[in-house]
């Protein structure tokens, strides 16, 4: 088993929380994991990106090369487009929020972004913010996206639920349950 994941988005969207949940689940499954993070100007709405490599055999590098990513999980459509050169075009997955976070004056036209996604074999684009708000879990949109990506990642649902309990446990049962609910919503949306 080997899965190379690029997580990307804008500062404050919960990318590093997704990485922590996946990492915790992978370790509980006895897998090897390497992670590299780029925070950039994350405090000011800048690019946040994390390379996450999971394998049943030892991993020698924490960076993912061009054309090597199995999955791009993006909290923001333009950010997925930015990392598209890293995606394995044969069978890689893009799982992204469909709603842009427009924080720059020359944000690309959404039709251009959608046309690039249409060239890919496996793409899931969903409005995670709306799903989160409609279900009363506005702060868990990132975990909805994780749920939609679960089949592409290859880690069992119960391992991810247990990781959510571990990662968010200190924040209380309400936060844990909101995130488990978000995971279930995302799994359904990703079908």
Task: Give a structural overview.
The chain is of the alpha/beta class. The protein is built from seven helices and six strands, in the order E-H-E-E-E-H-E-H-E-H-H-H-H. The protein has helices spanning 15-28, 77-82, 110-118, 128-134, 141-153, 157-168, 173-189, and strands at 2-10, 32-38, 47-55, 71-74, 93-97, 122-126. It has a six-stranded mixed beta sheet. The radius of gyration is 15 Å and the shape is globular.
Question: What characteristics describe this protein?
Answer:
globular; single chain; 41% helix; 191 residues; alpha/beta; 6 strands
Biggest sheet: strand arrangement: 2-3-1-4-5-6
Strand content: 15-25%
The major sheet is characterized as: 6 strands, mixed
Uncertain segments are: none
First-to-last CA distance:
22 Å
What series of H and E elements makes up the topology? EHEEEHEHEHHHH
Instruction: Give me the number of helical elements.
Output: 7
Please render the helix and strand layout as text.
Elements: E1 2-10, H1 15-28, E2 32-38, E3 47-55, E4 71-74, H2 77-82, E5 93-97, H3 110-118, E6 122-126, H4 128-134, H5 141-153, H6 157-168, H7 173-189
Parallel strand pairs: 1-4, 4-5, 5-6
Antiparallel strand pairs: 1-3, 2-3
Q: Summed up, what is this model?
A:
Helix content is 41%, strand content 20%. By secondary structure, the protein is of the alpha/beta class.
